[in-house]
User: What shape does this take?
Amino acid sequence: MKIPEKGKFSPAPSFRLGAFERKEIWGNLNPLVIEIGSGQGEQIAFASKRFKNLDFLALEVFPQGIAHTIRRLKALGVENARILQADAFSFFSTALPAGSVFEVWTFFPDPWPKTKHHKRRLISSAFASLVALALCSGGRWRIATDDSDYALQIHEVLDSAPEFKNMGSVYNELALLHVGKGNRHLQASAPKGKFLQAERFEGRTLTSFEKKGIEAGRKIYDFDYKKI
Ligand SMILES: C[S@@+](CC[C@H](N)C(=O)[O-])C[C@H]1O[C@@H](n2cnc3c(N)ncnc32)[C@H](O)[C@@H]1O
Assistant: This one.
């Protein structure tokens, strides 16, 4: 994926998605779920139809994905979902009042498999602080990835974050070594650690991206962190 130019998909610094704006956009103040990186829109379409008492906002930067999503949402006739072309980091930096979001979903964030690109991954300590600020008390950050190295990074970032509690209920093993595209084989002989992860979230549908990962033999890692 091409990285958007800095600032290209940032909301105006003065924009806030406050109660007034939410009433204008959704017509109510139902609990708000933000899906980051909605891709082709399979998840937001599924969830907005299933959870009619929640409002959904998808953040996506990829125009073709946004076009697909709009078509899907229109075809379903759902009224509780919106999509915005915005970079999640910028949006969470400026647009959300503290405690205003019920759940954040980040399913299959771009894995950036090359070691030199790991720093481009969205789930970092800096981003975790922004998500924590936006979430209401008890709010959830649900995450899934099929990249074992990213899974390790998610644990490193979030298990030690004071604002989050890992709500996982199953233990999975991960190699305690960061690897990149060319040296993944080193994971096999690296020491292993057991990490608390979540069962598959029942509100998460199978997207074509996840299906490809499963067909390629990759394991899926699910995470559920609660804002404390
Ligand atoms: C690997 S795809 C997964 C898509 C979808 N969640 C799924 O499961 O099919 C990651 C998506 O995140 C989007 N994305 C990457 N960085 C983003 C950012 N900073 N803000 C919003 N979306 C982003 C990409 O354009 C891409 O559509």
